[in-house]
Amino acid sequence: MTALPDTYVLWVELWIGIAAITFVSLFFIAAPYGRHHREGWGPTVPDRVGWILMEAPASLLVLGWFLWGGDLSSTAAWVLMGLWQLHYLHRAFIYPLRKRADGRRMPLAIVAMALVFNGVNSALIGWEVFVHRSYPLAWLSDPRFLAGAALFLLGYAINKHSDRVLRGLRAPGETGHRIPRGGLYRWISCPNYLGEILEWVGFAVLSWSLAGVAFAAWTIANLAPRALDHHRWYRERFPDYPPERRALIPAIW
């Protein structure tokens, strides 16, 4: 594959370094949205609106990079784009409309931070994977692509099944929270987060890209501490919460 410019590599390494700082910080400050929403973070928007504003750029910007400067004749590139959009079309335009928002609101500050996160990562993925890199048809049979795609699809299946379990916890009109059960919820509190981490680690492998590594690092930095926050939240509110469950990794953590 074509070598990456030194300046680009330096900037991506810096971006990964910021992810490491974020990872540590989020163990001390829970991002104030969803069940962890709290006052004091300024103006808010409806939860669904916030989700669409946050996630849509990841779908649209990467597609824009590809259509603007990519090799549209490359079957392998279209497959990679299909995998990327498999996640983000759902995350940006389907998931927000199906989730039970229950009148929840999200701080605009969180939306703005997510826009920066998605904007930078989408620019890196869009340029490196879909403009700079050239993937021949033979890439689709390369062991790196096959292993990465298998991991991505496994993570996608785990993520979507876990989301379905959460949506099914309450009937329409019901409020409050319940303990999720079934699937990987038998062993961990946040299999949806585990699934998403597996997706982007898989994408880093199947694209064999530095941008993919950076995106996987940011996914872990954001979701691993939040999984621990969720785990503590469940334990604080449900005395009968299954003691054998871990936060993110079965039997480990």
Write the layout of secondary structure elements.
Blueprint: H1 6-25, E1 44-46, H2 47-69, H3 75-98, E2 105-107, H4 108-132, H5 143-167, H6 191-207, H7 210-237
Antiparallel strand pairs: 1-2
Helix pairs in contact: 1-7, 2-3, 2-4, 4-7, 5-6, 6-7
The overall strand count is 2
How many structural domains?
A: 1
Mean pLDDT comes to 91
Largest sheet: 2 strands, antiparallel
Strand content: under 5%
C-alpha Rg, in Å? Answer: 19 Å
What is the multimeric organization of the chains shown? single chain
The strand line-up of the biggest sheet is: 1-2
- List the secondary-structure elements in sequence, H or E: HEHHEHHHH
Q: Any idea what the shape is?
A: globular
Q: Which structural class fits the helix and strand makeup?
A: mainly alpha
Description:
The protein has 253 residues and is an all-alpha fold. The protein has one domain (6-38, 57-170, 179-223). Helix content is 64%, strand content 2%. It has helices at 6-25, 47-69, 75-98, 108-132, 143-167, 191-207, 210-237; strands spanning 44-46, 105-107. It has a two-stranded antiparallel ribbon. Helix 4 runs antiparallel to helix 7 and helix 5 (143-167) packs antiparallel against helix 6. The chain starts with 5 loop residues before the first helix and ends in a 16-residue tail after the last helix. The mean pLDDT is 91.
Characteristics:
253 residues, globular, two-stranded antiparallel ribbon, mainly alpha, 7 helices
Provide a compact summary of the structure.
This protein is mainly α and 253 residues long. It is built from seven helices and two strands, in the order αβααβαααα. It starts with 5 loop residues before the first helix and ends in a 16-residue tail after the last helix.
